[in-house]
Design a protein that fits this description.
Chains A, B: This is Pyridoxamine 5'-phosphate oxidase family protein. Two copies of one chain form a homodimer. Chain A has 218 residues and is of the alpha+beta class. In chain A, 17% of the residues lie in helices and 39% in strands.
Chain lengths: 218, 218
């Protein structure tokens, strides 16, 4: 698919078996959900069984980069290519209905299917490492010592192209049954968000080093 | 393993290939990590490829229950049993080192391997549904209409026993190299936590219905 298309092409496995109205293939929506997070859950198959591990990722355009040491299992399995499913989820609210059955969560998620490949080009590896750092704290890669040759050699990065992708979003209030509307239970949504606390300097940091601006906007 | 053992028995696949010092099999630690969350990432294999979906879960003792409609893929595949990997992750902090290489995340995660089975016993199904609701908001199952026969029939719940389980924890400050300690970059940890906002009543809720106490302690 051309990268300037506004939507990803649905495939058999990116069309959900339930709640299809919540699915979206909109490229901007997918990017926005991915860019608000930095931890994904990466699934792969090992000895026929599923494995799901939390890991850091970064996005550059239509490519995701996933971090791992060269000793990690996904990295060792990624030559010549590892079938993966990469999932990112934000919880936005707790949905309390009058009926237990209609309790739910407001969320935004992205699921990416594809084959991950180990990055071997040195320039791409450096760009990917910057993207991984900047995904956590935008701008931070410019304010830290870049990886040296030894560190680059000890780092494995997998690339996963954004091709077979879907988003899923649930928003709004509870969907109670008409016959339940007079039940006496409180009903509504409890908003959920991520809170970033005041930065805590490391032991030994020179007190003259100020907290950088890019941390004050988190 | 006896359920009163203080630790889960490590297995070949619950011993991580890297950062082994971060791994733990302590039962109390595993329970505490599981009990602080309500969304897991459930991995399974479909047509030979991994699938990772976010979903709600609840814990009763050494059993996890995962929710799904009877039409959902994992539920349909869970008879007679579905190999799954269920992962729960809390992000506790952003670890900013002076070197890009030593950037990290403080986190607590639990990974459960096993075979999920569909719950067919009606009493167990009711208990599991209460556990799913109470995992999100402790005490809420007592303050909502229980599922009726039609809803129970439309709900599939999978059970996964806590048997092959590990936790992984990263805490503390950055681990910079000695030769980097005089670099001019700010270094430390940005704490990350979940923030619950003020409950938002659903449209049409009788204003006389007060926000329940169990929501004020979130």
């Amino acid at each position: 698919m051309p990268e300037n298309s506004t939507a990803y092409e649905p495939t058999e496995r990116t069309v959900p078996s339930r709640n299809r109205r919540r699915a979206s293939y909109d490229r901007e929506l997918v990017h926005s959900i991915l860019d608000e997070a930095y931890v994904c859950h990466l699934g792969f198959v090992r000895d026929g069984a599923p494995v799901v591990l939390p890991t850091l990722y970064g996005r550059i355009g239509e490519r995701l980069y996933v971090h791992g040491s060269t000793g990690s299992r996904p990295a060792r399995m990624a030559d010549p290519g590892l079938a993966v499913c990469l999932t990112v989820t934000h919880v936005d609210g707790l949905v309390l209905a009058r009926s237990a059955f209609h309790h739910s969560i407001n969320y935004r998620s992205v699921v990416v299917h594809g084959t991950a490949h180990q990055v071997t080009d040195p320039d791409e590896l450096r760009e990917a490492l910057d993207a991984l750092v900047d995904q956590v704290v935008p701008g931070r890669s410019y304010d830290s010592r870049p990886a040296n040759a030894k560190e680059l050699a000890a780092t494995a990065v997998l690339r996963l192209d954004l091709d077979e992708v879907s988003a899923k979003v649930r928003a709004g209030g509870p969907n109670d049954e008409p016959e339940d509307l007079d039940l006496p239970h409180w009903t509504g949504v409890v908003p959920v968000a991520t809170r970033y606390g005041a930065p805590v300097p490391a032991d030994g940091l020179d007190p003259a080093v100020a907290v950088p601006d890019y941390l004050t906007v988190l």
